[in-house]
Amino acid sequence: MEQLSERLGTVSLQPHVPVVAGSMGQWTLTLTVGSYGIDEGGTIKLAQRFAADWEVPQFDRPDASGYTTVTTNGAARLRPYYHTKAHERPWMKCLVIDVYDGSLASGDVVTIVLGDRSQGAPGIRAQTFQESAHEFRILVDPTNASRALPLPTSPKFPVVAGSPVALVCLLPSEAEVGAPTPIFVKGEDQWGNPTPAPADLAFSWKPLADEAASAVQIAAGQCVAYAPALGRVQVEAQTERGLLRAASNPVNFVAAPSATQSSAPPALRHWWGDLHAQSAGTVGTGDEDEYFRFGRDVARLDFASHQGNDFQIDDAYWQHLNETVRKFHRDGEFVVFPGYEWSANTPAGGDRNVFFRREGLPIMRSSHWQIPHVAEDVYSPAHPADELFRRVREHVAPEDVLLGAHVGGRYADIRRYFDAELGPLVEVVSCWGVFEWMLADAFAGGHVVGVMCNSDGHKGRPGAEGPGAGEFGIRGGLTCVLAAEKTRAAIWDALAARHCYGTSGARILVEWGAQVPTQTPAGASYLMGDVVPGAVDSLHVAATVTGCGPLESLTLYAGMTPIKTVRAAAFGSTEGQTEGQTVGQDAASISSRRVRVLWQGSRMRGRGRRVTWDGEVRVVGAKLTAAQPVAFDSYSDGIVAQDDAHVRFRSATTGDLDGLDLWLDAPSAGRLIFTSTAGTAEFDLTELARVGAGKTVDFGGLDMALTVQRYPESVTDLRLELTQTVRPPADTRTPYWVKAVQVDGQMAWASPIYVTGTAETKNPANTFAPLFIRE
Predict the structure, then answer these.
(1) 50 closest CA partner among 410, 459, 474, 371
(2) Distance (Å, rounded) from C-alpha 713 to C-alpha 573?
(3) 104 and which of 108, 221, 605, 761 could share a cystine (Cβ 3.0–4.6 Å)?
(4) CB burial string 725-763: b at 16+ within 10 A, e below
(5) How do 638-642 and 646-650 pair as beta strands?
């Protein structure tokens, strides 16, 4: 190492101190050229990891953000430029400096000033997420051979969270009456990084059912219920930013089983996990111990897995991952599954999550692309996906492996490659976006699948991942499993049986099941994910959703067709509602000055799916009295300017939705004109006088759409219930499932119940829904 530094050079950083995530600053790197010098045509690179989201440097606007200068005292000229793929993964993002019109000699100095403020620039924005040892990796090619090697002296420094702007309060979804239940509270900065909880927290209990508020008492950071209760813990704290308030996820206090109930099956509980993210061992951030400690202690997950890209995992690292999983897994405390991401290109099957029930099983890679030193063997390369299925079956017992279909840079092609036994799960949400079309693909192929939602986080924050200012578009999702206990066996069996659902990140409680009145025993019951045996002529379905915030709707689907929607009471009466209608179509006219504008969707299925919507909403014939963002994921997006006629915004979607709530000075007057980089549309607001009334404009792409809707001025419902008797079509296996939508845009998707009908029925008509699938 010392010899390499002597030959390639050394580098120093000023200031070399902790950096606050997302802060503006100026950083100076000073490279002293080594004994080799740098030949004319040689190269210097300042490389950062794939997940890093520092502001991109620019070199020609000295008074603007990101301005960067590169100078030398040597007898050569330097040409700086930025490229996102200038080095080998994961050190892909590079400020590249070409040496020309001369060479650099040993001892010459190259000075890089990131965010040079000398001519009026405000600096450059730092990475938006925390990291214990962020590295400015300097690489040098001294010989004009296009082979740059890293300096051993590249500076490292911590990136730390900023001041808290929000509180997060988490409790178990279920707890026992009489048992003290810890309340976990943390702060979050504007980029979603965790901070310690503020001092002097004040707690209160908000019941959601018909019990007295005094049924639950809170003291010393714990709550105790003295009778069954359903509600949320409310918390507030005074900080330097002012008063911060938050409410926990819903928690259900249930009575402990009595001796007379000992023969009854144990009650199922909701357990929360993130099954898909990476660390710095592949293309993520932080080491594996940091990864699992964050998931357990900060995100407060019940279960987790690690999913590194297989073509970067050599045998030693695979062994290390298994050992780390074994170290962190504890039944009853924190359940961890070993695994990896099989990462073939989409034509070969696309990304698949591989989960193992236990440690010590072999990895079957899609390729050895970045680990050529690992010899090919009977396990890998397992390529394409049907070869993966074959080799998994050959080397691993079916009960010890599960596959999930993922949409990342590569998307899983389950239309071409699918194994019903090995791969029963599809990932509907990750930080790459919302992919409800995965369900459409599964249903079109007649596949029986369950829903999971995860993060595929690369920022070292499994279970609490956000988009920052980088390539990933949205906050990560969570998978909820229904199991009697928090053990590896119970959670694994629930995943294998598809007794699970996914959310876009909120810990929304979903209960979803069905009964067949004609089956023996009478009224046989089925959970989400079940396949009803035989053929039936009718099915009673029931769903209850309890939100982490006010709920907008709960919708029942047959396949991808919505057949019944229950909406919050503020949308109007549900009397007379039939299949194919959404509440609001028959609702009485209710004056509301609130208009909701939502846009959503992706350009395509692949890596280039991001849609940029930057633009404005203009109101003519009415005045805007207020505007609020809806469902924006990143602090870098949102409202950038507004007055009484315009709202300018910055937004991007990757299958998810963003939007605005507008309050007007009149309940039903004027026109709304939407103008964005993705398209334009105009709406007559007098035609949307009823609460719930809306119009949707198709913008092409993959489910790209704009919806304008008359919205209730206040929605307070935290629970919605839906019941329906359905008659499944004859000789066809129909998936019935439910989706819940909160007012803030958070969603939950339940795994379907699959039913084959005995009598011909008319297919329900397609109707307006919060999201629709189009390609």
Answers:
(1) 459
(2) 16
(3) 108
(4) ebbbbeeebbbbbbbbbbbbbbbbbbbbbbbbbeeebee
(5) antiparallel
As a residue count, the chain comes to 775
- 80's enclosing H/E stretch is strand 77-83
Is there a contact between 648 and 639 (Cβ–Cβ < 8 Å)?
Answer: yes
CA distance 547 to 530: 24
- Other beta carbons less than 10 A from residue 640's beta carbon: 11
Q: Which residue has the tokens 């090697």?
A: 149
pLDDT at 517: 84
Please tell me the distance from the alpha carbon of residue 346 to that of residue 353, in angstroms, as a whole number. 14
pLDDT digits (tens, 9 = 90+) for 26-85: 999 999 999 999 999 999 999 999 999 999 999 999 999 999 999 999 999 999 999 999
Give dist(CA 69, CA 486) in Å, integer: 55
155, two tokens: 């500076």
Angstrom distance (rounded) from CA 8 to CA 22: 32
The position carrying tokens 């209730």 is 712
Cα–Cα distance between 347 and 721 in angstroms, integer? 42
**Full-model pTM:** 0.94
pLDDT digits (tens, 9 = 90+) for 604-624: 999 999 999 999 999 999 999
Task: Give the position of tokens 């001369």.
Answer: 102
SS3 307: coil
Give the CA angle between residues 577, 579, 583 to the nearest 5°. Answer: 40
Rounded CA Rg of the chain = 28
Beta bridge partners of 234: 204, 247
| Paired strand residues for 662 | 595, 627
- What is the C-alpha separation between 364 and 337, in angstroms, rounded? 16
pLDDT one-digit tens code per residue, 187-234: 999 999 999 999 999 999 999 987 766 789 999 899 999 999 999 999
Asked which of 339-353, 523-537, 618-632 is least confident by mean pLDDT, the reply is 523-537
Rounded Cα–Cα distance for residues 44 and 38 (Å): 9
Q: Note whether 506 and 479 are within 8 A (CB).
A: no
Separation between Cα atoms, residue 429 and residue 508, nearest integer Å: 15
Q: Give the residue carrying structure tokens 């709304």.
A: 672
Strand partners, 674: 617, 681
Using alpha carbons only, what angle is made at residue 488 by residues 350 and 344, rounded to the nearest 5 degrees? 10
Q: Do residues 762 and 577 make contact, with C-beta atoms less than 8 angstroms apart?
A: no
Q: Confirm if 92 and 98 have CB atoms less than 8 A apart.
A: no
User: Please, are residues 395 and 378 in contact by the beta-carbon 8 Å criterion?
Assistant: yes
Q: Which of these, 435, 425, 390, lies nearest to 405 by C-alpha position?
A: 425
Using omega within 30 degrees of 0 as the cis cutoff, is the peptide bond preceding 728 cis? Answer: no
